[in-house]
From TrEMBL:
GO cellular component assignments: plasma membrane
Domain ABC3 transporter permease C-terminal: 275-395, 737-852
Protein name: ABC transporter permease
Main location: membrane
Ranges of residues in domain MacB-like periplasmic core: 19-238, 500-700
Species name: Streptomyces liangshanensis
Cell membrane recorded as keyword: yes
């Protein structure tokens, strides 16, 4: 009980000093808890949707991907015949069966020619209105479609795009374009995560989406009372046979749909938890510093306790119990803040098109437990070394000295260990840059990053002594005696300065590394485009998985001022090489003009020859693995058609980031073996302008494709800018998440300065007594903060540049061979770190300036 009482007394006596450490714990736990609540809420949303939309038993084509599943690249869903509906209807135990028609490869536009469908990854469904839809939808106004001119749309899309009954919408499908009048609006009974749904009547859906009657994309089967889904599935399977159809119970269909989105949710979840881990790592430095300084300030008090009979174990437990209290308070507040963060993330995602409702907010019992355990564990681990140091102070040494004794042997051991780790990490990074394969190089890169990071943290006090002197000579000496005082304060405790700078170092190292990687990716891709791409214009979907419909292709090909248009289709096939090995590969079926639109380097043969009759090209990696040479024959079994034997006419270099490893054949070759109905559509097309008519052709091309807003028309400048924007958006998201770690690091600087001011109370009083003004005192503390922040920035940016350079060398193995260091970004981060130091010193400097001189001198 004595240990508990002492710990409670000390904790609340220093509650102001503990506050910033508690905030660090709070932020880290909030990010973990918020991530768990957010992803659990998303899972709940999708689980409810999939459970309510799935009938008792679903029958779909074997190759279908599920609701609206598409044949690879064709833009048309796989179908089953109406005869299957009749056979299922005759099965005992079937209460009812209805045919469903649905397609995802449709673009819906309004009267202003704007896409009203989802553009951020959520699907756009166009299909027929069925009884099964009443499970998840209710007609909010109007009525369901009753004829070929009518349609009904979901309420979320109607609200977002201000669509009302009587408006006309145009739908663009591979089978053609059709216009319908909205006669009804249907509302989801559960949360709609962002999908757009347009309903037609069954006959119209079959005609407009499938090209004719008598076909369905799914059968929805309802069981009679007392018949289980499993029994019904068995009976339906017996009636239809195995191997032709995919038959699923309600649970199986829901699980399959959940699995489709599960990978996306897992990537998001673990990425966010990774950033939370970085924040925890930075928070460790803050907590270690806090407890180290508190122990140092209570050295004499600890000596008295030891002299009165307290054991080392009791002193140790007393400090650790304070850490437990800090962890509990910070973690409880962090869990609560995490729920608020999750709600904020839901609102943010809603703004991007992924709708989530607070009605589905899910806080599992494991979330607060994980948050509490993590927060307390990290805090106790962080406080262990200071607690152990406190317990080792002898009573007499503590009573003689108000500070903890320095351990020269420990300092030497730390320096040697830090140098060894840094050297090992640097060697690993060097090996990574010399690797011949990306997989092996990635392992050495990861080891190098971890070892150099730990090494810099361990060696931080040694680096602080040298770097702070250099920085002081550049930044502080101009401020005269005040600058020298600031330098002396920063050098007084190199271990503390090193730990404080290391917290800032981690976040800035990651920022610098990712900046180098991002800039190098853009520069490499731009360089590759300049060298390889000969096409003037590139046409591709702005919405994922949207094929270029035939009418849009016709508009592209008939544009005035265009010299040629190149089709580019990915066709699934199984390739059997001369060594007898068979592999699933995609071959690119393109027009011969693609050899002009993409200047591929060959290591053998000529690429133009690969577009000859029954000819093809292969990548040099494939050729090396299978011993293929020019003139050899490869057996190509097209999955949607017949089998061809194609002669290798060229071997292309894989030293590229564009079409790396691609195998080319002439489009006419593919058309001889793959039926037209199963031939994939173009997902991208290229065009070249007539000589001297680039501007006119560009304007004409945009005009020709204006009725198809789902496609982007870009020249090479547009394409490069689009690539740069995509990388920048990704980096901005990452920088935003890393901002959490930087905020925690700033709190560490604030806490260090605040506790340092308390530690130096008598010294500050003496300085004020001999003539140092309040203004000079505040400046001294601000300058100390700036030099610590800049020290951390130098370490972080140097480390990050090393990581980024090594990572780029690995990317060069994938064709991204240009190293570009974004000096403006690096310089901006460096300057911003000085402002971080100024900001962090505001409160400690203000408090120091308000000290009463006599009271400060009299303090013990």
């Amino acid at each position: 009980m004595t240990v508990v009482k002492t710990s409670m007394r000390n904790f609340f006596a220093h509650k102001g000093r503990m506050a910033l450490s508690a905030v660090a714990v709070l932020l880290s736990v909030a990010f973990v808890s918020g991530t768990l609540v957010f992803t659990d809420t998303m899972n709940t949303t999708f689980d409810k949707l999939f459970a309510i939309t799935s009938p008792d038993v679903t029958v779909s084509p074997k190759s279908s991907g599920g609701e609206g599943g598409q044949q690879s690249g064709t833009g048309k869903p796989e179908t089953l015949p109406a005869s299957a509906l009749e056979r299922v209807g005759a099965v005992a135990g079937v209460k009812s069966v209805e045919g469903a028609v649905s397609s995802e490869s449709v673009t819906v536009v309004n009267a202003e020619n704007k896409n009203v469908g989802a553009t951020t990854g959520a699907p756009t469904f166009v299909g027929n209105w069925t009884r099964n839809d009443l499970r998840s939808m209710e007609i909010a106004s109007g009525h369901a479609p009753r004829g070929p001119t009518e349609a009904m749309i979901d309420a979320d899309t109607a609200d977002k795009h201000h669509i009302k009954i009587g408006d006309e919408l145009r739908a663009i499908a591979v089978t053609g374009t059709f216009t319908k009048k909205i006669t009804g609006i249907a509302a989801f009974k559960v949360t709609n995560p962002g999908a757009t749904v347009l309903y037609l009547d069954t006959a119209t859906a079959q005609r407009e989406l499938l090209g004719g009657p008598g076909r369905f994309t799914q059968l929805h089967v309802t069981a009679d009372a007392g018949v289980s889904d499993t029994k019904l599935k068995q009976d339906v399977t017996a009636a239809l046979g195995t191997g032709t159809y995919k038959i699923q119970t309600q649970k199986e269909a829901a699980d399959a749909n959940r699995s489709d989105v599960g990978s996306f949710l897992d990537v998001m979840k673990y990425a966010m938890l990774g950033f939370a881990g970085i924040a925890f790592l930075v928070g460790i430095f803050l907590i270690v510093n806090t407890f180290s300084m508190l122990v140092a300030q209570r050295t004499r008090e600890i000596g008295l306790m030891r002299a009165l009979g307290s054991s080392r174990g009791q002193i140790n437990r007393s400090v650790l119990f304070e850490a437990v209290l800090l962890g509990v308070f910070g973690s409880v507040a962090g869990v609560a803040a995490g729920v608020g963060l999750a709600v904020g993330l839901m609102k943010l995602m809603s703004a991007t098109g992924l709708e989530l409702s607070t009605e589905d907010l899910t806080v599992r019992w494991t979330t607060p437990v994980i948050g509490l355990v993590l927060g307390v564990l990290v805090t106790v681990v962080s406080a262990y070394i200071p607690a152990r140091r406190a317990a080792r102070i002898s009573p007499m040494a503590a009573l003689r000295d108000a500070g903890t004794p320095a351990d020269g042997r420990a300092g030497l051991l730390r320096a040697v260990l830090g140098l060894l780790l840094t050297a090992a990490g640097g060697l690993s990074l060097l090996v990574a840059t010399r690797a011949d394969e990306a997989a092996a190089g990635s392992l050495f890169l990861g080891v190098g990053v971890v070892f150099t990071l730990i090494g810099f943290v361990v060696i931080g006090p040694l680096l602080a002594g040298g770097l702070v002197r250099v920085l002081s000579a550049v930044l502080l000496r101009v401020f005269g005696p005040v600058g020298r005082l600031a330098e002396r304060n920063a050098l007084r405790n190199p271990r503390r300065t090193g730990a404080t700078g290391a917290a800032l170092m981690i976040g800035l190292a990651l920022v610098a590394c990712l900046s180098v990687v991002g800039s190098s990716m853009v520069a490499s891709a731009t360089d590759e485009l300049d060298k390889s791409v000969g096409a003037d214009f590139i046409v591709q979907p702005s919405v994922p998985n949207t094929p270029i419909v035939p009418k849009a292709q016709e508009a592209l090909e008939s544009t005035p001022g265009i010299a040629h248009v190149t089709q580019y289709r990915m066709v699934d096939a199984k390739l059997t090489s001369p060594d007898g090995k068979a592999e699933d590969e995609g071959v690119i079926a393109a027009d011969p003009t693609y050899a002009q639109d993409l200047r591929r380097e060959t290591v053998a043969g000529e690429l133009s020859a690969a577009y000859g009759k029954d000819a093809m090209s292969v990548g040099d990696a494939y050729a090396k693995d299978h011993g293929v040479k020019v003139g050899d024959t490869i057996k190509v079994a097209f999955k949607a058609g017949g089998t061809a034997e194609l002669k290798v006419a060229a071997i292309t270099s894989d030293d590229t980031s564009i079409d790396k490893g691609a195998m080319y054949i002439n489009l006419t070759t593919a058309e001889r073996y793959v039926p037209a109905a199963k031939m994939p559509k173009n997902m991208i097309m290229f065009a070249a302008a007539q000589d001297g008519k680039e501007k006119e052709a560009y304007a004409a091309l945009k005009k020709s494709l204006a009725p198809y807003p789902q496609y982007k028309v870009q020249d090479q400048t547009d394409f490069k800018q689009d690539l740069k924007d995509q990388v920048s958006q990704l980096l901005n998201i990452v920088y935003g998440l890393l901002g959490l770690a930087i905020v925690v690091a700033v709190l560490g600087v604030v806490n260090t300065l605040a506790l340092s001011v308390v530690e130096r109370t008598r010294e500050i009083g003496l300085l004020r007594a001999i003539g140092l003004s309040r203004r000079q005192l505040r400046r001294m503390i601000r300058l100390e903060s700036v030099v610590i922040a800049v020290f951390g920035a130098l370490l972080g940016l140097g480390l990050g540049l090393g990581w980024g350079t090594a990572a780029q060398k690995l990317l060069a193995l994938e064709g991204l061979g240009v190293l570009e260091i974004p000096w403006p970004t690096i310089a901006g981060v460096f300057v911003a770190s000085a402002f971080v130091g100024l900001f962090a010193a505001l409160v400690p400097a203000f408090r120091a300036g308000r000290m009463n001189v006599l009271n400060a001198i009299a303090s013990d």
